């Protein structure tokens, strides 16, 4: 039997926490280990409950989900943070993804979709709601309209690296997966940045989506 995923729920609405508690208890792939009503409680609660995945609301009083995500990942970079919110705008998603979240779900997702996303996040996958994926792709295409014919060619290895970046793998994990030295992976990423005129991994993913190399 697969490992049961330990989940911490962070949301300032008691009704939402109650609903999540109810359906998480009905699936033997996950177990709810704790709840927090605000971003200020996240670190202390996580230290006690030791979650694998944190379901994180974005808009909360005092400390919001984006800052709470930064704090939890500074404390434990191995923890997986999955945003769960009502916002569908791509800039909201980018904000929390830049903070280190591994996924972005909308609260109108079904219980099955949320639990599947938790399990996928724990396995190392990136999970984004279809509504937000569509906005990402549309924004990327509109931003790059008329530029596609001038895109420099990538090597097969660089394409593989981009696909693994999109899955959330670190440089070390990419190197292990492709059987290359980590220094080689870093050099390839620098080359991709120079070719595409981008500065970071998130921009690489968005540009690759725009070009149809990957899909979020």
UniProtKB/TrEMBL annotation:
Q: Does the record carry Phosphoprotein as a key word? A: yes
| InterPro entries reported for this sequence | CheY-like_superfamily, NreC/VraR/RcsB-like_REC, Sig_transdc_resp-reg_C-effctor, Sig_transdc_resp-reg_receiver, Tscrpt_reg_LuxR_C, WalR-like
Q: Which GO terms describe its biological process?
A: phosphorelay signal transduction system; regulation of DNA-templated transcription
Pinpoint the HTH luxR-type domain residues: 147-212
- GO terms for molecular function, please? DNA binding
Q: Which Gene3D superfamilies match?
A: 3.40.50.2300
Which residues are annotated as modified residue 4-aspartylphosphate in the UniProt record?
57
| Descriptive protein name | Response regulator transcription factor
Source lineage: Bacteria, Bacillati, Actinomycetota, Actinomycetes, Micrococcales
């Amino acid at each position: 039997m697969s490992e049961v995923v330990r989940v911490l729920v962070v949301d300032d609405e008691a009704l939402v926490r109650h609903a999540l508690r109810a359906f998480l208890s009905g699936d033997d792939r996950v177990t709810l280990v704790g709840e927090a009503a605000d971003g200020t409680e996240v670190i202390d609660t996580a230290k006690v409950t030791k979650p694998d995945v944190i379901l994180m609301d974005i808009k909360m009083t005092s400390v919001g989900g984006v800052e709470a995500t930064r704090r939890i990942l500074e404390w434990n970079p191995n923890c997986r943070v999955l945003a769960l919110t009502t916002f569908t705008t791509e800039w909201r998603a980018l904000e929390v993804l830049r903070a280190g979240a591994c996924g972005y779900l909308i609260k109108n997702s079904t219980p099955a979709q949320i639990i599947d996303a938790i399990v996928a996040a724990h396995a190392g996958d990136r999970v984004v709601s279809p509504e937000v994926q569509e906005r990402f792709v549309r924004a990327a295409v509109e931003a790059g309209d008329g530029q596609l014919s001038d895109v420099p060619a990538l090597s097969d290895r660089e394409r593989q690296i981009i696909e693994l970046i999109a899955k959330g793998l670190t440089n070390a994990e990419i190197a292990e997966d492709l059987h290359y030295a980590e220094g080689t992976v870093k050099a390839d990423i620098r080359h991709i940045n120079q070719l595409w005129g981008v500065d970071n991994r998130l921009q690489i993913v968005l540009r690759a989506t725009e070009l149809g190399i990957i899909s979020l």
